[in-house]
Amino acid sequence: MSKGVIVYIGGFKLPDKNAAANRVMANAEIFAKLGYSTVLIGIDRNISYGKDVTIIKIKSSDKITCWVTPYPRGKKDWLRYLTSINEFRLITSKYKDIKAVIVYNYQSMAFAKISKYCLKNNIELISDCTEWYDEKEGNMVFHLLKYLDTTIRMKVLNKRVDALILATNYLRNYYKDKKVAVIPTLISMQDYKEPVYTDSNPIRLIYAGTPFRLGKPLKNRNLAKDRLDIAIRLLYKAHKKGVKFIFDIYGITKEQYLEVLSDDTGMLQIMKDSVFFHGRRSNKEIQNLIRKADLSLLLRDKNRRTNVGFPTKFTESINCNVPVITTYTSDLIKYLIETKNGFFIDIKREDLDEEKFIKILSLNADRLKEMKIYCFKSNIFNIENWIEEVELLFAENR
What tens digit of pLDDT does each residue of 195-205 get? Predict the structure, then answer.
């Protein structure tokens, strides 16, 4: 018998079309193990305002129901999306015994309305907070509105909720007076397959994602979410020294990359037989491709944004038994064991770590096999590991 219903709402694209969707689906499985039914309310680009709310039935669990609402198109749609909770009210009216509502990085005006709804109906309100942006690239009006929305959410609304789910420990002290559970971005894996081994000749590296906003030049590279440009530069230096490798990039095309960072044209031309762009692929295909790689490459600057969030790419790679070359951001130091399941590179001292990077690219097949076996056996991102911590969020409901 269910302990009640948890409603989880945010800008996630169900069931697995973005990192946010992966996170909330995994969290919903934790709730299911605790005896709760979860109603997920996400967005879908394939439907527009004016049409009925659409339901998608997810086969992964009979305790998880997914709803999608229209993705905003024009200014009128965006205004409605940012301020209205009509779809939220419509969907919640279909359920009884709602124990909690979780808002995922939610827009402040609608967040405030949901807060009033929960207070009126004696429902616990929880904020799942995985980002705190401070972007300065692009339209100044957009930047100002985004800044105000984020500030109100982080400094006002999050301090009024009953509890918070955080992705890292970075914000734990900021919300030190609140009931908190820290859950890294997990991925609901249908099954944990054994490692895929290669002969590593040459070594194969992989990156899968969208490293920055596409469509126009990036003036300040420090604003990129992932420093794919630094990864390419490090590989270029290794290439000049005769190091052999294959670097597969999924998520964007070469043309899309150079539209944003045209100065890298020369390096990519020189490495045309070593660096390959493949564009977008399905989530299932990406996981199969990661399994066939030797190492994942994920470099990020250390800043508030990367410390607040937890990289799905890291979780996904480890779950696919592939070690990761990454940077000291987020809570990764809790999960990456140097030489066991990955390596840290300090991109602030790129020249000094260049030699370390080249040594990593020279690992032999036996050493890479050992690391893949370690990833497989460690099971560090099994959702079972967070059941006890999440249970404390609902202690008063038991």
Answer: 999 877 899 99
Indicate the SS3 state at residue 265. Answer: helix
CATH topology of domain 5-181+382-397: Rossmann fold (3.40.50)
How many angstroms separate the Cα of 298 from the Cα of each of 4, 206, 209, 291, 398? Answer: 39, 9, 10, 16, 41
The answer to whether the CB of 49 falls within 8 A of the CB of 72 is yes
What does pTM read for this prediction? Answer: 0.91
75: exposed, middle or buried (Cβ count in 10 Å: 0-12, 13-18, 19+): exposed
Q: Is the pLDDT of residue 397 over 70?
A: no
Average pLDDT over residues 244-255: 97
Helices (H), the chain: 19-33, 75-83, 86-92, 108-120, 140-155, 228-240, 254-260, 265-270, 283-291, 304-308, 312-319, 350-361, 365-378, 387-391
pLDDT per position as a tens digit, 85-112:
988 999 999 999 999 999 999 999 999 9
Chain-centre distance for alpha carbon 105: 12
Number of residues that this document lists for the chain = 398
Weakest-pLDDT range from 16-30, 260-274, 343-357: 343-357
How do strand 64-70 and strand 54-56 relate by DSSP bridges? antiparallel
Is residue 56 scored above 70 in pLDDT?
no
Instruction: Kindly report the number of other CB atoms within 10 A of residue 259's CB atom.
Output: 15
CATH 3.40.50.2000 segments of the chain? 5-181+382-397, 203-378
Superfamily of domain 203-378, CATH level 4: Glycogen Phosphorylase B; (3.40.50.2000)
**Euclidean distance between CA atoms 55 and 225, whole angstroms:** 32
Q: Which residues on adjacent β-strands are paired with residue 249?
A: 207, 277
Residues facing 135 on adjacent strands? none
Question: 87-111 burial, b if ≥16 CB within 10 A, otherwise e?
Answer: bbeebbeeeeebbbbbbbbbbbbbb
The predicted model gives 139-164 an average pLDDT of 89
Please check whether residue 42 is in contact with residue 13, taking contact to mean a CB–CB distance below 8 angstroms.
yes
Determine the Cα–Cα distance for residues 71 and 332; give it in Å rounded to an integer. 33
